[in-house]
Design goal:
By secondary structure, this protein is of the alpha/beta class. It is built from 19 helices and 25 strands. The strands form six sheets. Strands 1, 2, 3, 4, 5, 18, 23, 24 and 25 form a nine-stranded mixed beta sheet that branches. The longest helix is centred in the N-terminal third of the chain and has 17 residues.
Length: about 575
């Protein structure tokens, strides 16, 4: 007797093999049969005319705090994701001494823009060491499977105290202690170690994230600790990620290649198109091909769409959020504020004049983003278009209509009762399309990442990237070539699972865990991103649901069906296991 039989679906198994019609039989949490199955089953899902795929494996999320209070893990929950990897970019919440908890919250708030008050209220601290953190998560049920990495910022502060927090150089003894803590974390089940070297990543007080300036002896000792475990990966948000230093990316690849070669561990790093050198990514992919030819395992983690922020009046992150006149309306209920703005053209004109000028609460970073970016901003359409035509930018509309782009932007935000939105393509859209992303995704040596689920919650909702991969790249794209559906599925299932050593996941194959999506491909799509205030303390975050996921199955259990949460929580903590033979270590 099978527990679940998925009957007659078009199977895309995650290996890259051509689609085929097949039944999938599940017993317990495992796939036990694929083909033509006539065995009885406790439940049958009629998948005729539907796609059957592995569940998506999202390797770049920041749910490190959210996992302590939330068993659902939305928005990823709504997008067919069945396994998440967190602890990316060097930030997270373990290991930690009690007196550094709020400081770590400040680091996460600054780097990943998760409200600090929500983290302070929501996180249920039950650990000090990283193994204790894993044990705390292991006691909780989740809808999804979760995997964690050891973050450099927390590790440095834990071992070095204030010296580590302030990015001072580690002593030999401190390096040894960090390496030992990593060794313990890996043996307890961490899936790797992460660090950031990006100048963009700063704590809420503006200081660079601990580890961002760490020397090679420190990085190498930690890498050896990962390597000694025979498992895991070294994840990097590299220096030069934002295009601030065009020589840095090649220098970063050089040391990553060296560490991977000599220690025998895989390394993955974030790679995207940057405005200051929009074709630099080609050189970086070529450098990685060369490194792989020399025996290193260095994998670019690429994006499927531009890094884009959703700007609204509701979340108050928009080109006018530092206008004194706009701020003078903050005390009003939202509907009344919108009514005042719509009714008073003089008030709007004053806000337009003040918009995108002067110092901002977030400092020069947001001033730069909003000050001269009208060509990169687009009124959000229904459905939302993530590859908009430059002819429809705020700048282009303003030029056609002979208007101030600030006035065009304010009018866009006032649409739909003040719930209009602007998509700001902040990075990865230099040529006004997603051709760079298509080429990066087409490279067999890249892996999909950068979705940032759980982070930048008030302005970015890229946890929906897995759905976008199917809708845009395999079905809907009109402004260039598409990607084969089998490639799109493989890129975010077996490829991502293999990169992180998530054995037994990422494929619909006999003996693999039953993490599966059943999808009505014709109906698959996005609902509009909307602001909800469901974080602890009522803090806001963007939420985006979908249509077309007929069922998402985790460990053999249906967690959502036709857009409804079943309430089942069959997921949980995954712990790493040795997946490679230890390579010889050079002296």
């Amino acid at each position: 007797m099978l527990d679940l039989l998925i009957k007659g679906g078009t199977l895309i198994d995650g290996t890259g093999a051509p689609a085929r019609v097949a039944d999938v039989g599940i017993r317990g949490d495992e796939i036990v049969e694929i083909g033509t199955i006539d065995a009885p089953a406790r439940r049958v899902i009629d998948a005729r005319g539907l796609l059957v795929t592995p569940g998506w494996v999202d390797i770049h999320t920041h749910y490190d705090g959210q996992v302590t209070w939330d068993s659902q893990l939305a928005p990823s929950f709504w997008h067919g994701v069945t396994t998440i990897v967190m602890g990316n970019c060097g930030v997270g919440f373990a290991p930690v001494h009690k007196d550094k908890r709020e400081w770590l919250i400040g680091v996460m708030e600054g780097v990943e823009d998760i409200p600090g008050a929500a983290l302070s209220e929501g996180i249920q601290w039950e650990w000090e060491s990283f193994p204790e953190y894993l044990d705390a998560l292991d006691r909780r049920p989740y809808a999804l499977n979760i995997a964690a990495q050891i973050p450099h910022a927390a590790l440095r502060a834990y071992v070095m105290g204030e010296r580590g927090a302030e990015n001072e150089e580690a002593t030999g003894e401190e390096i040894a202690r960090m390496a030992e803590a990593v060794r313990e974390g890996m043996e307890a089940g961490a899936f790797g170690f992460s660090t950031t070297r990006s100048i963009m990543h700063r704590a809420i007080d503006g200081a660079r994230v601990p580890g961002a300036t760490a020397g090679l002896p420190e990085l190498e000792a930690i890498a050896r600790a990962v390597g000694d475990s025979g498992r895991g990966i070294f994840e990097v948000a590299p220096n030069g990620l934002s295009g601030d230093d065009l020589l840095a990316p090649q220098q970063e690849i050089a040391w990553m290649k060296d560490i991977s070669q000599r220690i025998g561990i895989p390394v993955t790093f974030l790679c995207l198109q940057v405005s200051s050198a929009p074709d630099l990514w080609r050189d970086l992919l070529a450098e990685c091909r060369s490194a792989r030819a020399d025996g290193a395992d260095v994998t670019p983690q690429v994006y499927s769409r531009a890094v884009g922020a959703i700007l609204t009046l509701e979340n108050k992150i928009n080109p006018f959020f530092e206008s004194p006149t706009m701020r003078s309306l903050d005390h009003l209920p939202f509907a009344e504020r919108v009514a005042r703005l719509k009714a008073d053209p003089d008030l709007r004109a004053k806000i337009v004049e003040e918009g995108a000028q002067g110092q901002t609460r977030k400092g020069d970073h947001y001033k730069k983003l909003f000050g001269d970016a009208w060509k990169d901003m687009y009124p959000v359409t229904t459905p939302i278009d993530y590859e908009p035509d430059p002819a429809n930018s705020i700048s282009a509309i303003a030029q056609r209509e002979g208007r101030d782009p600030r006035a065009v932007a304010l009018d866009a935000l006032l649409e739909d009762g003040g719930r209009g939105a602007i998509l700001h393509q902040m990075a990865g859209y230099n040529y006004g399309d997603l051709e760079a992303q298509r080429e990066m995704l087409s490279d067999p040596d890249t892996v999909l990442g950068g979705g940032d689920g759980g982070a930048h919650v008030a302005v970015i909702c890229d946890a929906g990237v897995p759905t976008f991969m199917l809708t845009h790249w395999a079905r809907d794209r009109t402004r260039g070539a598409r990607l084969p559906l089998e490639t799109v599925v493989k890129k975010q299932t077996s490829d991502t699972a293999r990169t992180y050593g998530l054995t037994g996941r990422g494929q619909v194959s006999v003996g693999y865990k039953a993490d599966i999506n059943v999808i009505d491909f014709d109906r698959l799509g996005f609902l509009q991103p909307h602001l909800t205030s469901d974080l602890p303390t009522g803090a806001p975050r963007l939420m985006q649901k979908t249509t077309g996921y007929v069922a998402t199955i985790v460990n053999g259990v249906v967690i959502q069906e036709n857009g409804e949460d079943s309430g089942a929580r069959p997921g949980g903590l995954l712990r790493s296991a040795p997946v490679r033979r230890q390579a010889p270590v050079a002296a």
